[in-house]
Amino acid sequence: MYPTARRGIVLAVAVVVATGCARPGPVGESRPSDRVVLRVVDETGRPISGAEVRTGGSVAITGDDGSVVVAGRGPVAGRVDASGHLPEPVATEPGETTVRLWRRRGPDGRRRAAFHFGGDVMLGRRYLDPVAPGTAIVDPADPTTAREVVVHLAALFAAADASVVNVESAVGEFTADDAVPGKRYVIASPPVLLSALGLLGVDAVTLGNNHVADFGDLGIARTIAAFEEAGIAWTGAAVEADDSAHVALVDTPVGVLGIVGGTTVDGDFVNERLPTAASGPIDDGTWITELRDAGTTGFPDWPAGEVRAGDLWRWFTAFEAAADPEAVAAAWQAVRAVFPELQDWVARRGHGGARGAGREEIARDVAAARRAGADIVVYELHGGFQYADAPSSFGRDRVRRAVEAGADLVIGHHPHVLQGVEAPGGALVVHSLGNLLFDQDLLRTFPGAFLRTVVDEDGRVLEARFVPFWLDGYRPVPVVGETARRIFGRLRATSAIGAEAVRLPDLTVGLVPGRTEGELTVDDAGVVRPRTFAAPAVVTLDGGVERLDDPWVARVVAADEGIAYGRDLLGIGGFADDLADGRGDRVAGWVAVTADRIRFEAGRVVVDAGPSRTILRTRGRIPIPRHRLFDDDGRPLDGDPWYSFAVRATASGPATLGLRLVVYDVDDADPLRDPVSTVVRTVVVPVDLEPGIGDVEFRIPEAAFAPTADLEADAILPYLELRADRPVVVELDDVEFVEWRSLTPRVGHVVEVSRLQGPAGAAVTLARLVPVEEAAGEG
């Protein structure tokens, strides 16, 4: 029996509104002023004079009315400090913004603290060895280059009493020979990563993931030594296999914060896919199909003669089920003597690795944190499926186990995208915080957020809020406006749909909806709140496309036949200057291929078109799976999709706008093989633009996305191309790539919707999800 009594965090979310955030205005709306004015007040609304506002290297002091004009133009980001108050991260648009600060002590004298939690972190691969020569971001010999990667986010993330991230790599200098053989991806970050973490104010890291052991026990030892030398607490890994957890402890104003964590991604799934000798005469020239002499050992039923790795894995799993730990360790050494490529990423079987996240391990680890003196326990769970919008059933089971064992907060990692929030048993759970510092190139991996919690000494969460950013060139940059609102919208949708990710028979991943009914949501300021549904609203269609004022997350109460719902897969088509990087010449998610003829101005892109093509594209590919939702038996629930494109264009003369789609087959399902991206086809849909302002919208031919005999069409890279016979200025705004599906199968379920279409007179009834503004807690 493990202790379950805890001084649990009672979720009393968000007692202040839009703390540190301005409510963004409508898409394309011009800002009233280029300057930023902050008004700093306390919880009661009284102005705070003498507060320090730090943005972009400058410091300004608030006057008697709590106001200050912040230096610089465009969006700004930084932190606000005032005596007797918690530091507050802030990112805001030009205009006036009110920032409310929490007092260090509540009206009843109870102390308070702010904790920050970030997602996946590394500084390897493309940071050091980019695709384009001469464009490396980090110099392993220069700590300054590592600090420059995080400079825009650092002040915000460091505005806390304790901060924690998931470091998803080994840390140190290694050679290729040091790497674990046979692993698809191995990641090493140079020691200058510690300089970046220092600027971010990181106090503790979890290493319980599937990459800490990429360079074996040597890598684990060097990684742990690096953090100990830097004075950063760590958890989640061990050089030797044992049955104890190393607890990261951080002293805070409200007591000791204890962090433990582990991973469900242990390598077994890779081994289970290995062929055996009975699989037939296959030989692809790799160790996966190679036959090797197993030799002889003293183990019972040891495979004789030539075997494949899969034969030894199957023998080992049968042996392990009935053997003691010492015999298991010896058997593992024996099978790896023949096939060192067999994978095992957790600390067990006589070797080091990440901490596992089995049900019993989780209970022991949470109990160990309490015994070590932790007043508040955070469990960091690494698991689920990469790029999925929802946790797996396996992961959700482990989350609930952590809560049952007494964890006050559970933070998820591994999917590399943001996932939703819930509160099982009264403990706040974030299923995935996505990436904080990572080098992936899918568009969906660029939006990010870190979690800020304000907690009192009785363990109550007074505020839980997401602070949004965008990985711009793999550098985290705070964002405001429409970009921030879209990030919060994804968190809102993934929290509400209540889906679980499952692996399908073809090894791809889909979602089974309606597994849970989420009780929390995220509002337009990133604040976590209880949720409810508004009174149902009836939308009657006129035969055209009905565009909702903002993307809705809503329950479909009723829908006539023939109605389709659409959602924008881009989410970055407003072209507003939402990056708080002090530059003003870039926007989130887009690359100006012909940069000399493209400008981003006032929430639109301005193109100097002429006889040669002017090209703009997204920074990453967008997945377009044929099906997203499945039932428990793996049958599709959502019907076949179709797609449309929309843009608002203003042209000074005749021009041609071309939507070019490079359509890909992305095969990343087999954990034994490197992913393969193959161009299926390139499709260009031209549209003639007349002088003036016009809304362009058209359905993209289904043939663009048709599979071939060997390839699926499951991802796109969109380009916008402009050409004119003579010089013409074209302004583009409100660009959307819309996925459409039939609404009928979704009646009774929650959907994310931005557009509707159907026969004239057809009606749909939607109950929109809304935050509950009045939450319990102190003011």
Structure, explained:
- It is a single chain.
- This protein is an alpha+beta fold and 779 residues long.
- It has 9 helices and 47 strands.
- Among the domains are: 65 residues, Immunoglobulin-like, CATH 2.60.40; 70 residues, no CATH class; 169 residues, Galactose-binding domain-like (Jelly Rolls, Sandwich).
- The strands form 10 sheets. Strands 30, 31, 32, 33, 34, 36, 37, 40, 43, 45, 46 and 47 form a 12-stranded antiparallel β-sheet that branches. Strands 8, 9, 12, 13, 24, 25, 26 and 27 form an 8-stranded mixed β-sheet that branches. A 6-stranded mixed β-sheet has the order 15-16-20-21-23-22.
- It is globular.
What helical percentage do the residues reach? 10-25%
Mean pLDDT: 92
Q: Give me the CATH architecture of one domain, please.
A: Sandwich
Number of DSSP-assigned strands: 47
Shape: globular
Strand-helix topology:
Blueprint: E1 36-41, E2 52-55, E3 58-61, E4 67-70, E5 76-81, E6 88-92, E7 95-100, E8 112-121, H1 143-157, E9 162-167, E10 170-171, E11 188-189, H2 193-200, E12 204-206, H3 216-230, E13 233-235, E14 237-238, E15 248-252, E16 255-263, H4 268-272, E17 292-293, E18 306-307, H5 309-320, H6 325-338, E19 353-354, H7 359-371, E20 376-382, H8 393-405, E21 409-413, E22 421-422, E23 428-430, E24 435-437, E25 447-456, E26 461-472, E27 475-478, H9 481-496, E28 500-503, E29 509-512, E30 520-522, E31 528-533, E32 537-540, E33 545-559, E34 564-568, E35 590-592, E36 598-601, E37 604-609, E38 614-618, E39 622-623, E40 642-651, E41 655-667, E42 676-689, E43 692-699, E44 715-723, E45 728-742, E46 750-757, E47 763-771
Parallel strand pairs: 1-7, 8-9, 8-24, 9-12, 10-11, 12-13, 16-20, 20-21, 21-23
Antiparallel strand pairs: 1-4, 2-3, 2-5, 5-6, 8-25, 14-19, 15-16, 17-18, 22-23, 25-26, 26-27, 28-29, 30-31, 31-47, 32-47, 33-46, 33-47, 34-45, 34-46, 35-38, 36-37, 37-45, 38-44, 39-44, 40-43, 40-45, 41-42, 41-44
Helix pairs in contact: 1-2, 5-6, 7-8
